Amino acid sequence: MTTSPGCDVLVIGHGAAGCMAGAELAGRGLDVTVVGRGTPATALSGGRISLEGVERRRQVADRLRAMGRDHGLFASGEGRATALTDRGSIAYQDLTSAHDWLAITEVRTAVVGLRGNPDLDPDLACRSLSHRLPSLACRPLWADPGVPASVNAGRRTLSEDARAAIDALAGLLSDVPEDLVVLPPLFHGLLSDHALSELERSSGRKVREPNTPLSAPGRRLQECLEEGAARAGCRMLAGREVRSLRFNGGQAVSAALASGMREASMSFRAVVLAPGGLVGGGLAVRGCEVVDPLGLFSMARSSGRGLSSPELTAALETGIAERDDRAVLLDGTRAGNVFVAGSARPGMSFPLGRGLGHVMSSALEAAELVREVL
After folding, report:
1. Handedness of CA 19, 24, 27, 31 (dihedral sign)
2. Structural domain spans, the chain
3. Could you say which of 1.10.357, 2.60.120, 3.40.50, 3.10.450 is the CATH number of the domain covering 79-210?
């Protein structure tokens, strides 16, 4: 086993909680390493943020605006805004960007589905919209402009693929009589918002995107958070798996990091556990129990409700047990410098109503606790 450079704080997990905690700590002058593998649940989400009921909503909003500035995300002021889902239902969100909110006064709307793109069904969306917003004149439209379901917009200048998609879509939309067009999310990458603005300019139509999970908005949010953490000074180690933690006197002192066949040891002064919950793969099911894949920490159960199956509800509500704001080991002792953030905490699982805003708020809380220790 080789030895990697040590750090002040090791953050395990590179989703919303891990990136937010890492950026906060690095911004305070600490040496932070963020380790992650696979695709975080954040990248599979709808990419939208609701701050309703979030404890640190002002802090979360400020951090997201700063991170999203270069991505065209979260540009508007804080406040509830109306958005659409891919099924045509109404979603309310905060921190909207230019292309994901719907003004009710914009009554002439075309919902456009693209052949081969599963992210928006205009017939279903218009039926749902007409039921919920009778004043909204909504027309479904299917089209086949030959545009891929996912287009990388580029990082510094618009990519050739993005320009080709914009040209094809602009020709289609310019013939649509409605003022507002809802399109399935197509663009990802740093310039995705710029690509949508260019499409609006070329077509002469306002363009909006639905809140669609497993699609481009979630990937945009993940890219934004990762770049924000790196810009704050975090060392981002993608494709790394934490195989084990070594303890000395009740304190975690080092981790074994693996990448393929290679393994390295990294020392640190504190750990933030933000691997995600059961949905994101940060926790696992072994037999009938939810467990920590490292085999180190006790599990707690929350009393929350929200799904029809009691067993599934209990599993999703399970998280790493804490005592005095520290993670609890299997032998019942408290790990003095290990803090839990995000969906790995009990009751934070997204399907039960604890969304990205709550996850990032818990990350800021964990960062505060780490700073108190260090």
Report:
1. negative
2. 6-47+221-372, 79-210
3. 3.40.50
Q: What is the CATH number of domain 6-47+221-372?
A: 3.50.50.60
Amino acid in position 154: G
Q: Judge whether 96 and 83 are in contact, CB under 8 Å.
A: yes
Pairing mode of beta strands 251-259, 241-248: antiparallel
Provide the 3-class DSSP secondary structure of residue 374: coil
Rounded distance, CA 50 to CA 4, Å? 38
Structure tokens at 241: 């798996």
Do 335 and 329 touch, CB atoms closer than 8 A?
yes
- The position carrying tokens 């990032």 is 360
Q: How far is CA 7 from CA 266, 335, 372, in A?
A: 8, 18, 17
Are 277 and 319 in contact, with CB atoms under 8 Å apart? yes
What are the 10-residue block averages of pLDDT along the chain, 374 residues in total? Answer: 83 96 98 93 87 90 92 75 82 82 74 92 90 85 93 93 97 93 92 94 94 88 95 95 93 93 93 87 81 89 58 77 95 95 82 73 97 94
Give yes or no for a contact between 57 and 358, defined as CB atoms under 8 angstroms apart.
no
Report pLDDT for 106.
60
Nearest-angstrom CA–CA distance, 123 and 346: 39
Measured CA to CA, the distance from residue 76 to residue 192 in angstroms comes to 17
pTM score, two decimals? Answer: 0.90
As a 3-state breakdown, the chain gives helix, strand, coil percent values, each rounded to 5, of 30, 25, 40
- Contact call for residues 325 and 369 (beta carbons, < 8 A): yes
